[in-house]
Write the structure tokens for this entry.
Amino acid sequence: MTYFASVNETALAVFAVVVGITLVVTYFASKRVSTATDFWAAGRGLTGPQNGFAIAGDYMSAASFLGIAGLIFLFGFDGFLYSVGFLVAFLTVLFLLAERMRNSGKYTIADTLAYRLKRQPARAAAALGTLAVVAFYLIAQMVGAGVLIEALVGIDFWLSVLITGAFMIIYIVAGGMLATSWVQIIKAFLLMGAAVVMTIWVLAEIGWNPLDLFRDARGASPEGEAYLQPGLRFTEPLDTVSLGIGLVLGTAGLPHILMRFFTVPSAKAARSSVMWAMVLIGAFYVMTTALGFGARAILGEAGVEAAGTGGNLALPNLADELGGELFLAIIAGVAFATILAVVAGLVISASGAVAHDVWSNIVRHGRDSEREEVWVAKIAAVGIGAVAIVIAIIGGEGLNVSFMVGLAFAVAASANFPALLLALTWRRFNTTGAVAGVVVGVVSSVALVIISPTVWPGPDSEGGAFAWYPLTQPGIVSVPLAFIACWLGTMLTTEPTTERSFDELYVRSETGLGAEVATGLTLTGRRGGPRTAAAATTTTIPPM
Amino acid sequence: MGEPEHRSDIDWQAVERSPEFRELVRRKKAFIIPATLFFMAWYFGFIILAGYAPDFMGREFITDGLTVGYALALSQFVMTWVLGWMYLRRADRDFDPLAARAREAAEGMRAGAPGTRFRRDEVVTEDEEVRR
């Protein structure tokens, strides 16, 4: 059963339309982005709803669109666990970090740490955390893009990866965060539209009763009742809990998501953008029910082989079954836009870590010009993009995409989240604690994944090489380890200055006093500048 | 380009100790801590049941096809939206005005000179006046 032979012209045409639209947006953005605040924070000029769509576009990757539908198709209820975790995670973001990051940060998550801790080690640690997360996430997305485009359009894997990487670099170098944000907004519209159309189509196909999704899916699975129960994918209960920890805390440690809060003018806009994102992302994940269980109900067991590794092609196959070649091409185009928007967000956050944290503040001690900083950021984006392209092509289709994304979440939950949360809330916290937390978080989560049964000896073997550690998800061990490292490092050393500077970060993050102001940049022009910013932040003290 | 700007003209320690700021933090904590504990408990309760009680999660709920597990999963979506909406409402009504007052208090302390508290056309509210 081959759905995809040679080059699919219809899909190619849809891809061209998607890319064309994003390039027009990038062209508009390129004429306006000049300062570092424009480049990394889109001039802090996005509205709450705009940033909400951008967060949704930044967050929902191919792992959400194709991956979750595929996992539900293969494993039933266990696949839906991802949907739940990915959404609930935004409460962690909303309650603990969104507004505080907006009030205390400038361009990167390192800003918040460096504000009260010793700058150089704090920045180095935060840059390490950011780059570790981005490395796993980015390569996963690039490999996913290559596999997807090869399967759906018929372009070779290496060329597909190269094309994806090239567009990602163009968006960032030409249009910075402004272009990236609008690519993400457009993608969110496309993704939501595609999900709504497919959900309605699936419901029409099964006779409009949503309960028949479950009944038909159960009937179409050899597992029967077990298909609607947990346990088909996660056989180790502790592993399920560990996954939950990684998902619900990991989102609050993803640098490309936290960076989005620097693009709005005020804390109020930051929290309203989370609410918009939660509505969009939640609605999408509810619809994954129809996509995943629907794929099982309609394609049945016969579709398993065509769905490929991890079931990633279950959704495209469903589209083909429902609407034929044109609908398949549209879904493929949406999936391509989905990946482009996510990789662009990842690379711009990595460029911040390299240019703003490492180059500007560690190497140059903050003495470089704004012009130089933006130039270094663009060079960094090209470099990071090139490295990702090369690794993805060499690592090739052998890399397991959902495993890499899971690892990225675990690293984010272990390395970034504990240090950020404690810096914002714990007076005693100090530099040693932060560095210890980030390093232990990165090392323990990566090491635990390496010794997990899926990696060593390999995914198909019975039991792991290390019998005492049967888990595939590191969160339940690595997150507590990182918190303990933060605590131990802090308690074993004293730094009186960081306790004093806590007052400044604390007041600033809770009230917005002295927070960075907007430049009034928009895609089509520039609003009144600082005046708009003052009105939006309701800051009663005029900028100095 | 350097770090986010530090403002040496503000006595941050004094602002942190001001009653306005303490009130803001107290009110925020009174919402955020219980809300966070609640959603973590509800979510991890669900995850733990999914891990350790697959049979219970697979039981029929109300009608054939709908399982207890799926119903609980849907309740997570509802919980997320409702808690998010509650937080936004509280932040707009309570936290933002309190944060504005804490900033005004900081403004008052900054210059120390009388009159600077009244910037542009802003007037210190009556109860604030009493407390001073």
About this structure: The helical segments of chain B are 12-17, 19-52, 54-57, 68-111, 126-131. The beta strands of chain B are 60-61, 63-67. The first helix of chain B runs from residue 12 to 17. The CA atoms of residues 90 and 98 of chain B lie 11 Å apart.
